[in-house]
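FORM 7B: Structural annotation worksheet

SECTION A. Query
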Amino acid sequence: MESITNSKKAYFIGGGLASLAGAAYLIKDCNYKGNNIYILENLNEIGGSNDGSGNLTEGFSCRGGRMLTREAYENFWDLLSFIPSLENSQKTVKEEITEFNKIHKTHAKARLIDKNGKIINSKKMGFNFKNRLDLLKLMLEPEEKIEGLKISDWFDLNPNFFETNFWYMWQTTFAFQKWSSLVEFQRYMKRMILEFSRIDTLGGIVRTPYNQYVSVILPLKTHLSNHGVNFNLGCTVTDLDFKKNNEITVTNIYYKNEENNNFNIELNDNDLCFMTNGCMTDNSTLGNFNAPPLLNFKRPPSEILWSNIKKKKRELGNPKVFFGNPEESNWESFTVTMNGNKLLKKIENFSGNTPGTGGLMTFKDSNWLMSIVVAVQPHFKGQTDEQTIFWGYGLYTKENGNYIKKPMRECTGKEILSELLHHLNFENEEDEIMDTVINVIPCMMPYIISMFQPRALTDRPDLIPYGSTNFAMISQFVEIPEDMVFTEEYSVRAARTAVYHLTNTKKEVCPVTPQYKNISVLAKAVIKSFV
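SECTION B. Predicted structure
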């Protein structure tokens, strides 16, 4: 007779990293059979925001590139420590990434570029005494006193903070806006204090051998598939039902397939439900060399689901705070695919960094606040030796370009690349460079930094809502004290915590490492602030 542990099912709503991590830990630590785990994803591919796609003729595309660090990604590295590499089954993905980074070390030499196309000395942070004092006071301020505030609210009496080299580097590395949440900015300052002293070189950044879809998601997906996990693609979950009592117990999952047919999953008493209650890449659209991406500011599917269940259980957060103002939560990325390395060689000569050794290069006087990064080649599995790729993004999509007098969001891929070439002072060779281009794929993401929206402390729901018997929310929109959103670590920590809690598994989740309490780390940060 099959045991209860081996017969109960687990349902994950959303196919991103959190769900994949949760499924992996259920199998590894909680004695779950893979064929009793179901992942429901509305897209036709697993991976959520960790995407990477394309081909030789149409070019390649990544919506984003996830930054990794050794010290602040405790549970992420734990996860990858038991996932086999697809390149070498005798190694784990963690070992594979570690070995790759011993060879390809980051030391950026061109973090900031001025309006004349000259590299700025970014070792100088540019602080005055008031800037240093404001940052110190912020580090000591309780979150309860700054909830709902924007970053600009804290520095309103000394706005030159936003002209410092530090701000341009910190802002573009983590995608903050002046109107982003002060609480999230504070958490980043504490959690990423090690990066504060090396923000000008990004020396603490860890790269994956390929894009994150190939290097992280595919090995995870393969591992789960080998254990029999069920991937249900093209399934848009629209609502959940709960038991009619004060507890939070999911009884039904409602979803639609691609043909818009309605389905209902009834949960048994021992079944579990893990829900991704917000997706930052919802409503993303792609353009191409000759066409801009469409602008889709409609309500995203993940917000609709979250709002529907909040009507039934009011304590489940406040989705409108995060998804109600896409004009403040969008930015646009672009991926350039070329034949040959003419442009990459020019960027290498300009920056002093070979592909994969530099960091984000930011054009600080760009009206779009444009940045680019060149990874080790190849960055995609389908790339040939003759093809080269790089990625970039702009934070201010409503503004006209400095050279292309149109908002970034209205520009074709060709126009975005032309704007970049002018910032690099490569315009005299524009025609020759354009002849090597296979495609430039812009991607508009209306909700990409929605998790940074100013919020009250109660706007994000608890990971395990009070009174829950079988339900958890796992995403960038749940509350995990001390940790920072918009990271791979947040997704894995959320999933691992939820899985252990709902299965009563007596294992520890790796705690947040309080680097900001380390005297030597703080000393380095203080010294750096005076450079």
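SECTION C. Observations
The CA atoms of residues 82 and 92 lie 6 Å apart. The first helix runs from residue 4 to 7.

SECTION D. Sign-off
Analyst initials: ____
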